[in-house]
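Annotated sample (chain length 494).
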Amino acid sequence: MVLSKAVQSESDISLHSTFASRYVRAVLPRFKMPDNSIPKEAAYQIINDELMLDGNPRLNLASFVTTWMEPECNNLMMAAINKNYVDMDEYPVTTELQNRCVNMIAHLFNAPLGDSETAVGVGTVGSSEAIMLAGLAFKRKWQNKMRAQGKPWDKPNIVTGANVQVCWEKFARYFEVELKEVKLREGYYVMDPDKAVEMVDENTICVAAILGSTLNGEFEDVKRLNDLLVEKNAETGWDTPIHVDAASGGFIAPFLYPELEWDFRLPLVKSINVSGHKYGLVYAGIGWAIWRSKEDLPDELIFHINYLGADQPTFTLNFSKGSSQVIAQYYQLIRLGFEGYKCIMENCQENAMVLKEGLEKTGRFNIISKDNGVPLVAFSLKDHSQHNEFEISDMLRRFGWIVPAYTMPPDAQHVTVLRVVIREDFSRTLAERLVTDISKVLQELDTLPAKLNAKMAVSAENGVVTEHDMEVQKKITDAWRKFVADKKKTNGVC
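Output written by the structure step:
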């Protein structure tokens, strides 16, 4: 949710629509509900006119979120758009589909389940809610243990890397848990497991590892983290567990890197979250939290309600939510199967390599991302003497591309990066086109100082260059750089 901020000027008080004027002539207040109704055609046209100014989702290379699905799946979603998922008694089939998804994903993550054993998990609005739920489970288990031992239980902490997504910071602040971050360093942009384990103490409720860093797509070494924690737990008598934030990589690693041990094959991994709306290939609004076993989810966190018609267990932060995304996730799982997901992920990875090679051929960029990980390309300029990544990001918008530029977290904040996420709907043709457009932007930026200096060069030939001319040029250049640099304050990293 984005906090609302309305800045009014005289021209912003009302909404006008040219095409809607055949239905209504009266202007509408912008920030107040109108007194009277208007025709449905007018309401549609007014909104449609404004939405045309939004960016094209398929050209939004900042986001991991799915922007295309098959028409059949779209139809299923629209048919279920009026179903409130929480009403399990009224919509038992939707509830069954959610349970099937939980079990499919748990088996994909190698949960230690018997033949007739049911997996423990829940569908969420996204990975942010899934992380909140997993964090609450770790906190409650730790508190119960410390109370039983007669020890203080009011200062829990979580150990993460400084590269974690903001939802971890939200969890820590909202639920009063200290966030202990392992700082990054140039050339190493994920959590160092050795340093993470050094930061673990008796009050650590879990260590959070990321399978697919938002910043550069890299997988953290969960296997080494597990092995180091096993040793530390044996030495100290603690039982510090691991949560894997697989928001981006959970639907990638099982298909591209099946031998990689990061999931429930590791004994200290107690819970995993994954975003169905990222490489799970569903539109925004679905995530999953999966626990290793029933013992890892304290029963006192589960609520039982019966006022919707039957006893219904629920463990969510919110109550009402739509059923469409759950149904869409089930569609994708049975429609694609293991083979289909594997083909899509391989194709994404191949297109990422096309983009990477194209950028390398320009000779202008260092590649920050790894070949193994989430299919994305993170890159930075080799030479910052004239231009920076924020200028490139800003000028690419002229071609319709939304490519984020951002600085790395501490202690690598001096490193600035551009990042392109490769989704299913990003083709090889688009990858090649993006390289072409980046090259055009670089050429324009290269000529920018020459354009600013052209007038002065003519003046110099006539012997009339003044100190004032130099000051004006400097002010123009500085103003331009400041304008573009300020963009980083609004560039999001999804």
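Annotation: The mean pLDDT is 88.
Annotation: The first helix runs from residue 40 to 51.
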